[in-house]
Structures are given as C-alpha cells and as structure tokens.
C-alpha cells in the first residue's frame, strides 16, 4: 500500500528526489561562515566518493585555508555552473563563484581556468585576463597548450608583440611548439585567425602533428550508413582480407560513383545535427497500420494537438516571466528566490530560449508519462529533460564557434574524394583528419562542454516539472475544464522509502492512448506492449514486425558505432 498525496508544486520535494540513503540520513548543520556554500548532493545516486583537495593560495588576496574535501557531485556541479555562467557571458559572476570556492581550499583543473581566461579574452578585458594568468603561474597551475594559445590570441589582438614573444618562448620550453598549436588547442574560427597572424609575425609555418587515428570518423557515421545502403559494390581489382575490407570498404566503386550536390550534402548535415540534438534513436511509429484517418480520428488528432499547443504556450509564457525577473535582480543572486526557481537553476535555464525548454518538457512528458498510467519517477524525468537540453546546447555552441560551418566544408571535400574513380588508399579516418588539419584556420571541431551531472538535472528538471504542473490545465470538456493535467505524488518503494512520481490525469489517458498508439512517431514502449496484448490481432502482427525490423536495425547500428570508435 502507498499513500497518494497531491502536490501542486515540487518545491518541497526537489531535495527528496534522490536515494533512500539520502532520505534516511539527515545532513549535519552548516558550520559558521559556510552558509553560502552550495548544498551537497553527494547521495544523489548512492554513496559518492569524496575527493581530497589540498589548500592553495588564491588570487590577489593570497589567503590560504585548511585542506577540505569536495564531493564528486559538488565538483561536477560547480564546473557545470561555471560553464553555464560563461556560456551566458556572465564572466564576473562566474569568477565570483570560482574565487569563493578557491578561498575555501578547493582546486580546479586547468580546463576551468582556461574557460574563464578565454571568456575574458573574448570580452576584450586584457587586465582581468593577465591577472588570472599571473595567478595561475603564481599558484603553480600547470598551463597547457590551450592556456598559451588563449594568451597568444590576447596579445596578438592588442599587437603587443613583446608579450607575445614571451608567451611563444614559454610554449616552446614547455613542449608546445607554435607550429603545432592549432592542433593542440581547441580554438574557434576567430581565435585560430589570430594565431595565424602571430605565426606570420614570427615567421613560423603551421605543420601537421602526427596523430593516432582509427579507421572511421565518428562525425560522418551517418554518411557511411546512407552510402552503404545506396551502393553495395566493391572496388574492382582489389583483393583484401576481411579485416581490411571492414576498415577500408565504404561500398563505393567505379561502376557506382555518386556525386552529392550541395543541397544533398546540406540535407545530410541537417539530419546529422538533428540526431545530435535528440541524442537517442526514435522508435518507429505504427502509423502504417492506420494510413487513412476517419473523421473521428482527425477530430481526435486536432484536439490532442490543440491541448499540447496550449500547454506549450502557457509554459513558455511562465518561463519568460521567470527569466525576466531573474535578469532584473541578477546583481543580488544570493537573495534571489522564487516559488519554482532559484540561483542554482537560472543560469542553466537562460542557456536556451523559453520556447525550446517548453518544447522539451511537453514532448518528454507526453511521450513518457502518458505511456505509464502509474506515473514515472522524478529522477528519470529530470535526467531525460536535461539530457535533451544538453544536446541542444552543445549543437548551439558548435554553431557559434564555427564547428558546423567547418563540418559542412569538410563534408563536401570528403565526399568528393570518395566519389573519384580512384579514391585515395587511406583509412577514412586518416583522410578526414588530413582534411581537418589542412583547414586548421577554420578552428577546432571539438568543443569542451561538460555533461550536466545529476545535481543539475535534479535542480532544473524538478523546477521545470513543477512549472508544468502549475500551468498545464485540462480543457477536454466542461466537467474537467481547469483541472491540473499532471500532479506529483509519493509512492512507497523498497525499504520503506518514498519516491517522487509525476502522473497524468486519468482522463488524459483515454485521449492520448487512442491517438498516440496510432500517430505519434515516438511511441511509448509500455503503451505498445499493452496494445500488443489486446484483442486486435492484425495490429499486433504489424507492431511485432515493425519492432523486429527496428531491433535488427538498431543492433547493426550499434555494432557499426562500436567498430567505428575502436
């Protein structure tokens, strides 16, 4: 038996989303002077190891504190929070959080220093960038190629060639030659152009750095799959072993040369970005079973879409109001607090437009919650929402840094090389890397964005779900108009602890079950299983055939991905 409690807001349950151990153990009282520290979420997924952090001197104050322990979840959350502030261009706020934790004795990897340094250079603040770099040298932080490349960009923009010469000498002494710096560092297109100016000034030519590469480039994996389906012939006159075939054969031969037009390559790139934004493979719809819709089904379809559009509009309007309130009081972050969100959530919410967040929340809720009549755990939904948002944010950053533009150029060259009657006898991964190195002036293809930990998912996801519960209303008929479409409850689990669940209104299942089992592309697996066990034997047969094909296709795709990443 379990007790069902309706809760219109998740504020009091946000910190109880986690494991039984977190609920059975009361956190100790905060020590004096540590009230502004981030709350520890170390028990979010069970016992989390702690990382012992030695003391270190800090920026201009040079104060030093006793060694402290920073839990793994704290470390991941702080790194993600800093990255979110920097992504918004709020470098001063990020540095406040950064220096506060340094004064407490915590240390950060050099990648965190580099991101703050890179943000100051991007904003054109030479003094703050130089101060941070000198602090790194004074504290004994091991500077890498990224650090030196950023400082070289700064001095090149200011045409301070004496300081740039010192940076180049320091790079050479630490094993980062200027001729290889474009490949060693992750620079945007504009930053790479500044480094090339420095090379011209010091009369240094860029050289390729030998790489250890595999047979396949992951970024063009979808192109391989499409090509292998379109052409299944081997190059004539070649006798290779099975292993060499698996590494070098692409399915293109002299008799079946296909040249892609720019529009076709642009369409393939668009599909590649969509796959990255989704982050998962979608289950095929069984809409083929019902190709023609009756007037009743069309009316059902329209009412369902109208209801979802209304949820999106209401949630978008609410998030925009919250974001505006946050922007007006951004200078007093510690005092900021609202019914649904606080300073721990807002930096992440501002990374994407309110419309994008509303689309993510509504789609994930409709697909998953309404496919489970008993509801779904908050932990699962929070992680699902934030994973989808993180993928969209990564693609957005790639567009801003010029990665998407460079990838489209490489696509054209890559496919042109492979479509020649005598393609170069190189592993495809080596061919891709050679073209990448030749186009080093366009920046790096890699973007260092840490995956959001579960702490971020619990903060942001719980706030978004509480906002959805507050705004999503039913408008199916007069008897249920204005009622909440979703609600939060607790269900008893193992060992007597209670887990938070989000459930949908019972009247929603009658509507969405009739519609989504027939029309929606992303169909719930549990809903299909229930439909399979129904009396509709014809639909059962078609569903089983569709999922058998989907399962085989997924297995082949996973094998090819594993093989391509070796």
From TrEMBL:
One Pfam match: PPR
InterPro entries, sorted: PPR_rpt, RNA_POL_N_sf, RPOL_N, TPR-like_helical_dom_sf
Keywords from the named record: DNA-directed RNA polymerase, Repeat, Transcription
Region (Disordered): 23-66
Regions of compositional bias (Low complexity) in chain numbering: 46-63
One cellular component term from this protein's GO annotations in UniProt: DNA-directed RNA polymerase complex
Protein name in UniProt: DNA-directed RNA polymerase, mitochondrial
Organism encoding this protein: Geodia barretti
Taxon lineage: Eukaryota, Metazoa, Porifera, Demospongiae, Heteroscleromorpha
């Amino acid at each position: 038996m379990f007790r069902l409690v309706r809760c219109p807001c998740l504020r009091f349950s946000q910190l109880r989303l986690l494991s039984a151990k977190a609920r059975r153990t009361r956190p100790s009282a905060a020590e004096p002077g540590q009230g502004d520290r981030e709350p520890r979420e170390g028990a979010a997924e069970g016992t989390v190891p702690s990382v012992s952090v030695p003391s270190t001197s800090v920026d201009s104050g040079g104060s030093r504190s006793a060694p402290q322990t920073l839990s793994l979840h704290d470390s991941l959350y702080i790194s993600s929070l800093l990255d979110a502030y920097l992504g918004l261009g709020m470098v001063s706020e990020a540095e406040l959080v950064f220096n506060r934790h340094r004064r407490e004795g915590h240390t950060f990897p050099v990648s965190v220093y580099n991101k703050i340094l890179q943000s100051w250079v991007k904003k054109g603040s030479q003094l703050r960038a130089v101060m941070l770099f000198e602090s790194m040298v004074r504290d004994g932080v091991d500077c890498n190629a990224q650090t030196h490349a950023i400082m070289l960009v700064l001095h090149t923009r200011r045409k301070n060639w004496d300081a740039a010469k010192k940076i180049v000498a320091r790079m050479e002494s630490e094993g980062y030659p200027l001729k290889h710096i474009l490949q060693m560092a992750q620079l945007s297109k504009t930053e790479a152009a500044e480094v090339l100016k420095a090379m011209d000034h010091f009369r240094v030519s860029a050289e390729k750095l030998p790489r250890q590469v595999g047979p396949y480039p992951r970024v063009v994996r979808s192109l391989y799959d499409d090509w292998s389906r379109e052409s299944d012939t081997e190059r004539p006159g070649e006798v290779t072993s099975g292993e060499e075939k698996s590494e070098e054969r692409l399915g293109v031969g002299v008799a079946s040369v296909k040249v892609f037009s720019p529009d076709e390559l642009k369409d393939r790139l668009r599909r590649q970005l969509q796959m990255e934004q989704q982050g998962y493979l979608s289950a095929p719809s069984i809409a083929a079973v019902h190709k023609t819709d009756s007037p009743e089904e069309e009316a059902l379809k329209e009412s369902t879409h109208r209801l979802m559009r209304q949820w999106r509009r209401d949630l978008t309007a609410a998030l925009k109001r919250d974001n505006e309130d946050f922007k007006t009081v951004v200078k007093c972050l510690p005092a900021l607090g609202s019914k649904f969100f606080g300073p721990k959530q807002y930096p992440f919410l501002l990374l994407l437009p309110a419309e994008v967040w509303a689309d993510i929340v509504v789609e994930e809720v409709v697909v998953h919650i309404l496919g489970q009549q008993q509801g779904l755990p908050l932990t699962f939904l929070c992680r699902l929402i934030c994973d989808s948002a993180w993928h969209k944010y990564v693609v957005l950053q790639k567009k801003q840094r010029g990665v998407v533009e460079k990838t489209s150029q490489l696509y054209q060259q890559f496919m042109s090389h492979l479509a020649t009657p005598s393609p170069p006898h190189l592993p495809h991964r080596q061919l891709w890397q050679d073209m990448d190195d030749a186009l080093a002036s366009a920046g790096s293809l890699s973007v260092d964005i840490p995956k959001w930990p579960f702490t971020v998912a619990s903060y942001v996801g719980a706030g978004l779900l509480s906002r959805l519960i507050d705004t999503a209303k039913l408008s199916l008929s007069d008897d249920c108009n204005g009622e909440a479409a979703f609600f939060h409850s607790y269900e008893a689990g193992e060992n007597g602890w209670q887990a938070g669940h989000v459930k949908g209104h019972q009247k929603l299942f009658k509507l969405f079950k009739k519609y989504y089992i027939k029309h929606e592309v992303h169909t719930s697996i549990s809903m299909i299983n229930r439909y399979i066990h129904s009396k509709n034997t014809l639909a059962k047969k078609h569903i089983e055939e569709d999922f058998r094909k989907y399962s085989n296709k997924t297995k082949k795709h996973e094998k090819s991905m594993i093989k391509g990443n070796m």
